[in-house]
């Protein structure tokens, strides 16, 4: 999609954008022809503001969503969280499992990944929000359940101090 068309049709007509925040090296559109100057010019003509933020760096390296995903893929959660500036978190809906944990006295919940693949397989201490009024603590296993004929990645959380 050509840069000017993206601005007029998508940003202005469809989204009715009033302000856009971009990085100082932002490029967009067909063959990356759109740049900051085009956005500023069109913003003045079409009535939206353009705010440019400086590039964030860690260890003299530019932070990007690609680098965060790569760190997660390497299971380098510490570096990913440093780039994010906060604890890595996921969200999803609770789904019904086979209730095997309940039958052996280990209450668990399963969280739907909705076809997302998390790169951070492993066992983690977690906080769950939104289950009740208080934070619930647990131990999450992110990975395949080979014992139960698993073929896709799951998030299963053992709820601590609950019945």
Automatic annotation (TrEMBL):
The lineage of its organism: Eukaryota, Metazoa, Ecdysozoa, Arthropoda, Hexapoda. Residues 83-163 form the Riboflavin kinase domain. GO terms for molecular function: ATP binding; FMN adenylyltransferase activity; riboflavin kinase activity. Transmembrane segments: none annotated. PANTHER family: RIBOFLAVIN KINASE (PTHR22749:SF6), RIBOFLAVIN KINASE/FMN ADENYLYLTRANSFERASE (PTHR22749). Keywords: ATP-binding, FAD, Flavoprotein, FMN, Nucleotide-binding, Nucleotidyltransferase, Transferase. It comes from the Eukaryota. The keyword Iron does not apply. GO terms for biological process: FAD biosynthetic process; FMN biosynthetic process; riboflavin biosynthetic process. It comes from Glossina pallidipes (Tsetse fly). Belongs to the RibF family. InterPro entries: FAD_synthase, Riboflavin_kinase, Riboflavin_kinase_bac/euk, Riboflavin_kinase_dom_sf, Rossmann-like_a/b/a_fold. This is Riboflavin kinase domain-containing protein. Pathway: Cofactor biosynthesis; FMN biosynthesis; FMN from riboflavin (ATP route): step 1/1; Cofactor biosynthesis; FAD biosynthesis; FAD from FMN: step 1/1.
């Amino acid at each position: 999609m050509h840069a000017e068309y993206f601005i007029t049709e998508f940003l202005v007509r469809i989204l009715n954008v009033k302000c856009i925040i971009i990085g100082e090296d932002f490029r967009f559109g067909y063959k990356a022809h759109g740049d900051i100057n085009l956005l500023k010019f069109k913003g003045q003509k079409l009535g939206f503001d353009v705010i440019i933020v400086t590039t964030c760096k860690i260890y003299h390296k530019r932070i990007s969503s690609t680098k965060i995903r790569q760190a997660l893929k390497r299971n380098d959660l510490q570096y990913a969280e440093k780039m994010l500036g906060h604890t890595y978190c996921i969200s999803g809906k609770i789904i019904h499992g086979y209730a095997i944990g309940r039958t052996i006295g280990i209450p668990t919940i399963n969280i739907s990944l909705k076809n997302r693949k998390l790169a951070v397989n492993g066992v983690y201490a977690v906080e769950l929000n939104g289950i009740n009024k208080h934070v619930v603590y647990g131990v999450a296993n992110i990975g395949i359940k080979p014992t139960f004929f698993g073929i896709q990645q799951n998030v299963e959380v053992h709820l601590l101090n609950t019945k």
